[in-house]
Automatic annotation (TrEMBL):
<dbReference type="Pfam" id="PF13590">
    <property type="entry name" value="DUF4136"/>
</dbReference>
<dbReference type="InterPro" id="IPR025411">
    <property type="entry name" value="DUF4136"/>
</dbReference>
<feature type="domain" description="DUF4136">
    <location>
        <begin position="28"/>
        <end position="187"/>
    </location>
</feature>
<protein>
    <recommendedName>
        <fullName>DUF4136 domain-containing protein</fullName>
    </recommendedName>
</protein>
<keyword id="KW-0732">Signal</keyword>
<feature type="signal peptide">
    <location>
        <begin position="1"/>
        <end position="26"/>
    </location>
</feature>
Length: 202
């Protein structure tokens, strides 16, 4: 259930430096042998032993159940559903180290002008260049994988995974974005990675 999800550090850095992001970008990759989802859109969830009687997992399942209903899927018993759907997900806590300028307080912005003192634009005599310090910013690398298995044959027909580093440092904050991204297009083209952007708060 716990998996390390790889992300592009450049994208992470841009989000951190921009402050609070107004959009969440997820990277979605899918593989499938049944591009049109032939057959009835009925499903049942499969669970690992650690997912059984797990309230966190039950919450994520409910979110996924609601989203699948919007795509025309209906839940049935495991003995009659056309598809069996398994979920796996995880988040790792990471730190992005960013080098930033740090000015001497003598020449910092203040009430007398850009450099805080009344004796000129560059302070006295000129105001030295800023020093640079390294600051650490925490972020989470979160991922979700959904596996659709044809129940009568036991064959996996579609697998999709969504990954993001933009949705906070907890699995609960990232999961709504991951579910929406993974099912934004059903199915996604097999073997390609697509960026899905979602607005925060909508």
């Amino acid at each position: 259930m716990w998996k390390r999800w790889g992300m592009a550090t450049l994208a992470v850095a841009s989000v951190l430096l921009a402050g609070c992001a107004s959009t969440v970008t997820s990277q979605v990759t899918a593989f499938g042998t049944s591009p049109g989802f032939e057959g009835p859109r009925t499903y049942a969830f499969t669970r690992t032993p650690e997912q059984q009687n797990n309230q966190e997992h039950a919450t994520y399942e409910q979110w996924l159940r609601t989203r699948l209903a919007g795509d025309g899927f209906s839940e049935q018993s495991p003995s009659s559903a056309h598809y069996l759907i398994g979920m796996s997900y995880g988040i790792t806590q990471q730190v992005m180290r960013v080098t930033e300028p740090a000015y001497d307080p003598m020449f910092a912005p203040g009430p007398w002008g850009p450099w805080g003192r009344p004796w000129g634009w560059y302070g006295y005599p000129y105001g030295g260049p800023p020093a640079y310090v390294q600051r650490d910013y925490p972020y989470g690398l979160a991922g979700l994988q959904l596996r659709f298995t044809d129940r009568p044959t036991g064959k996996e027909v579609y697998r999709v995974q969504a990954e993001t580093s933009d949705a906070g440092t907890s699995m609960a904050s990232a999961m709504p974005f991951l579910i929406d991204a993974a099912l934004k297009q059903l199915p996604f083209p097999s073997g390609r990675t697509v960026n899905v952007q979602q607005k925060v708060g909508q």
